[in-house]
Automatic annotation (TrEMBL):
Keywords: Cell membrane, Ion transport, Membrane, Sodium, Sodium transport, Transmembrane, Transmembrane helix, Transport. InterPro entries: Kelch-typ_b-propeller (IPR015915), Na/Glc_symporter_sf (IPR038377), Na/solute_symporter (IPR001734), NANM (IPR056734), Sodium:Solute_Symporter_SSF (IPR051163). Pfam families: NANM (PF24996), SSF (PF00474). It comes from Echinicola rosea. It comes from the Bacteria. PANTHER family: LD47995P-RELATED (PTHR42985:SF40), SODIUM-COUPLED MONOCARBOXYLATE TRANSPORTER (PTHR42985). It is found in: Cell membrane. The chain crosses the membrane at residues 402-421, 441-461, 473-494, 514-536, 542-566, 573-596, 628-646, 667-692, 712-734, 770-794, 800-822, 829-846, 852-874. Belongs to the sodium:solute symporter (SSF) (TC 2.A.21) family. This is Sodium:solute symporter. SUPFAM superfamilies: Kelch motif (SSF117281).
Length: 903
């Protein structure tokens, strides 16, 4: 144990040495754009120089940038009689140890010269759609795929479009490619979709957006707070007069609802609408779409007016005058709009975020690649192309600040100190697992509440409310409904039978096999969540503190191991108490501060909330696939019965108080805390929405996911020191989830397995030592696996494992509940119930659209039903006197209760 404390000290002071002494761990949370010049496009075979192209197919496949086709004017400017040339060439840019390099010796050329098609990067290849050349507009669709083995580009044809189109725009939502607008025989309002995962590919025509037909529109795919959607902005339509109508309107297509919605028009900081066409945009950060310039204003129309006038003027002098004015405008064209506009999909707001420092290309595609957005080639003024390739990234600047780092370090250090101070009371497993009944009921209650209030929850509830509404509010309220059931049904068994783990009851009620299987399911669930519990908060915290994600994991993991090993469940509970006080108090401070900063009247704020349906709390539809009130209510009740009735992490808190009455008070306290905390966190989410709706420039693309929105606000808006304390509490909340799992798993492994293997350890010293080493092993496993997931990007895979184990969680709660309620069930029936429940869960997950919030209900009910029915097929002579609610108060139960009280 001294070695662990020593290692923690080294980590602690290394952290402080870097931060407080000025070496720093980070540049900052606000951030700014960075710009990188990639190698210019090489000259095509036969060309002396590279001019670049407009309208190229551009995208990424197998981590290389593919560019193909395009058009330019190789001889002279178009207004001087130059002829547009359409290309068939394919180019590939790859990453190399020294930076980037163009691949030489490519064999493939496009089947025909083409430009102004639509390109979409997909896992299957670069999807190239339509386009035109001097002779025709195309409906052809094909994939360009990079083969890293033979280092060549391959071409695969896909089904043609229903009609020929060029200058369309598109994007990929899930596995479906979407295509909107364009020019063919006329400007189109067509909207198509093709699911690339289908065996038989086909284009499906969908309802058009509620606006005019258009070409040269800008699109992006971004999350709207619930799911990925297709966004369509601006564009133009050439009219019979020869002058284009320019658009500033914008629309969102939600694939889940299969419908369009009009959103805020493109606009500047003052709210003035801006027309935009042929520009580039890319989804960045959480719910943000960044626009990198484009054709805006009336300069484009001025050129078209000259073209229209020249087609009508016959007089030679007048023509020459018009041509001269046109040429002057062309020669002195200022280039296209350089402003970086940002649209936020959740707050439906716009702001300007600086200017690009280079001539902006249009009629090109913004391609996300390796953390940057690549702007390849394109048109930089009418008729003029560029061979330049630009990368735009996002840099974090500034510092979290030594004051905040000091507060963070002192807070985390105090948790370790608490473990050291409590360690003097740890003399037996009774102390280590149950604190020998020394914990006050109110502390146990706060700890029960705190172990459910993880860092993920602390960030996720405001984030979910920020993105959606209050429909999940009653999910948190259901614990108040469930608390009397826990106190009246479950608690008496756990207290009066003098048990250490919940699963001891399963052996008493059923048999040893059921107990061991229950214990294994629990241990599997905890091991399955340890990595996620550490990784997900670390990913959010690294955004706002700048501490490397691996360092976040190490800090939380190692410090949790130290104070949990030293102080046992008592240290875990008291650190929970501190964490809850700081988190709730800090959230209240945040709530007051955000409304102070908004500077709007309550009536105006309420108007915004109502207009955007952010205060919706009741969804009374009989829809069991989403978050209707019935789903939230029924699912929440079932989930809390499972959690509070069969999860050792929670049950263990019942056993740390002096008697059953104190434990009941603790359960009631933890349940009642759900109401004020839910009001605080849901209000915080709405307040964040209002703040960033009214102050969109305060929200940065540095926020990579919505779950980071609350910590981001804390760091960027709260005073120094207070923000450090709250971020420290978020660290502590993550550590609270970890320490609870470590201690509870150690309790289960020691009690349910070790003590059965080595029953002769009468002094208990070896058992206590074993429990501490199990705690270390579990903590090291969780920390190590979180580090592996962070480096390899595997959280989704581990989520799948966690989900598979979790299929049994509802069933586990079911066999507890039916065992307590019924005299008729037995051990073999319980095993059958567990198995059938898991099969039902698989069927529900993969064979239905049932809401995830109802999974606990299906697991609970199916296990109870199948255990009850299955038990009729088996006989069991086991004495269950005092083990169901029907015999709980008999003499045997009373005697066991007296024995426990004496102990």
């Amino acid at each position: 144990m001294r070695a662990i404390t020593y290692i923690a000290s080294i980590l602690f002071f290394t952290f402080f040495g870097k931060v407080v002494l000025g070496q720093g761990l980070f540049d900052n949370y606000l951030g700014s754009f960075t710009f990188e010049a990639l190698p210019d496009m090489p000259a095509a075979v036969g060309d002396s120089v590279s001019l670049g192209y407009a309208g190229m197919f551009a995208g990424v496949h197998e981590d290389v940038l593919i560019l193909a086709g395009g058009a330019n004017f190789p001889d002279k400017a178009p207004w001087k009689g130059g002829t547009k040339h359409f290309s068939q060439h394919v180019y590939v840019l790859e990453k190399s140890p020294g930076g980037y390099r163009w691949v030489e010796g490519l064999d493939l050329k496009l089947p025909f010269p083409v430009a102004y098609g639509t390109s979409i990067s997909t896992p299957k290849g670069l999807l190239c759609i339509g386009g035109n050349n001097q002779n025709a507009t195309f409906k052809k669709v094909f994939l360009l795929k990079w083969d890293p083995v033979i280092r060549q580009v391959e071409l695969q044809y896909l089904p043609d479009l229903p009609l020929a189109l060029s200058n369309s725009t598109g994007g990929l939502v899930g596995a479906s490619a979407y295509l909107a607008g364009g020019e063919g025989e006329m400007v189109s309002d067509a909207f198509f979709r093709m699911d690339l995962d289908q065996d038989k590919l086909r284009w499906e025509r969908l309802p058009s957006w509620p606006g005019k037909p258009r070409s040269h529109a800008v699109s992006a795919v971004q999350n709207n707070g619930m799911n990925d959607c297709f966004y369509l902005f601006g564009g133009r339509r050439l009219q019979e007069t020869g002058v284009s109508e320019l658009y500033a309107d914008a629309f969102c297509y939600d694939p889940q609802k299969e419908g369009w919605k009009k959103i805020s028009s493109i606009q500047d900081e003052q709210g003035t609408p801006l027309t935009l066409s042929a520009g580039t945009a890319a989804a960045q950060g959480a719910g943000q779409i960044v626009f990198y310039g484009g054709v805006s204003g009336d300069t484009f129309n001025e050129l078209e007016r000259y073209a229209a006038a020249l087609s009508e003027v016959v007089d030679t002098l007048a023509r020459q005058e018009l041509i001269q004015k046109r040429d002057i405008l062309m020669e002195n064209h200022p280039g296209f709009d350089r402003d970086i506009q940002v649209y936020h999909t959740i707050t439906d707001s716009w702001h300007t975020m600086g200017r690009l420092p280079f001539t902006v290309p249009v009629t090109t595609t913004a391609v996300p690649w390796g953390g940057e957005v690549i702007l390849p080639s394109g048109e930089i003024s009418p008729g003029v192309r560029t061979a330049s390739i630009h990368g735009v990234g996002f840099k974090k600047e500034g510092a979290f600040g030594w004051v905040n780092y000091t507060v963070l370090g002192l807070y985390l250090g105090s948790l370790v100190l608490m473990g050291v101070l409590i360690s003097g009371k740890q003399h037996s497993t009774e102390d280590f697992f149950k604190a020998s009944g020394r914990v006050p009921w109110w502390a146990a209650g706060i700890s029960i509440f705190g172990t459910q209030l993880s860092a993920i929850t602390f960030m996720a509830i405001p984030a979910k409310t920020f993105a959606t509404d209050w429909t999940l509010f009653f999910l948190l309220m259901t614990i108040i409904i469930v608390a009397p059931i826990i106190i009246g049904v479950f608690l008496p068994f756990f207290r009066r039978l003098n048990i250490t783990t919940a699963y001891e009851y399963l052996e008493l009620r059923y048999n040893r096999s059921v107990r061991l299987i229950g214990s294994l399911i629990y241990v599997g669930l905890q091991l399955g969540r340890l990595g996620i519990v550490l990784l997900l908060p670390s990913l959010a915290l690294t955004v706002v503190t700048g501490i490397d994600v691996s360092m976040c994991i190490l800090i939380m993991g190692l410090l949790s191991i130290v104070y949990t090993v030293l102080g046992g469940i008592e240290a875990v509970i008291w650190t929970d108490v501190i964490q809850v006080v700081v988190l709730l108090g800090g959230a209240l401070i945040c709530l007051g501060f955000v409304f102070y900063e908004i500077h709007e009247s309550p009536a105006e704020l309420m108007s915004i909330v109502m207009e955007n349906q952010k205060g919706k709390i009741f969804d009374m539809r009989m829809d069991f696939t989403g978050t209707s009130f019935w789903v939230v209510l029924i699912g929440g009740i079932a989930a809390n019965i499972v959690q509070y009735g069969s999860d050792q992490t929670v049950v263990q808190r019942y056993l740390t108080t002096k008697d059953e009455k104190a434990a009941a008070n603790g359960i009631a306290t933890g349940a009642l805390m759900a109401l004020p905390s839910a009001l605080i966190f849901f209000s915080m989410g709405t307040a964040l929405y209002l703040f960033y709706k009214l102050h969109p420039a305060e929200l940065s693309p540095a926020v990579q996911n919505t779950d980071s929105i609350f910590p981001f606000y804390i760091v960027t808006q709260l005073p120094t020191g207070i923000s450090g304390l709250l971020i420290a509490a978020v660290f502590a909340a993550a550590m609270s989830s970890l320490d609870s799992s470590m201690n509870s798993v150690a309790t289960v492994v020691t009690t349910d397995f070790y003590q059965k293997w080595f029953p002769k350890d009468t002094t208990g010293k070896n058992t206590l030592g074993f429990a501490r080493w199990v705690t270390v092993i579990v903590g090291v496993f969780g920390t190590g696996f979180a580090l592996v997931m962070a480096s390899l990007g595997l959280p989704s895979l581990w989520d799948q494992f966690n989900m598979i184990i979790g299929l049994f969680a509802g069933g586990l709660g079911g066999i507890f509940l039916i065992g307590m309620l019924s005299d008729s069930v037995n051990g073999k029936g319980a095993l059958l119930g567990l198995l059938c429940s898991a099969l039902v869960q698989v069927a529900v997950k993969y064979g239905s659209d049932l809401s995830i919030h109802l999974y606990a209900l299906t697991g609970l009910v199916s296990a109870m039903g199948m255990t009850y029915i299955g038990s009729f097929f088996f006989t069991d002579k086991r004495d269950i006197d005092g083990l169901t609610i029907h015999s709980l108060g008999n003499k045997k139960g009373e005697q066991e209760n007296k024995t426990l009280e004496k102990a």
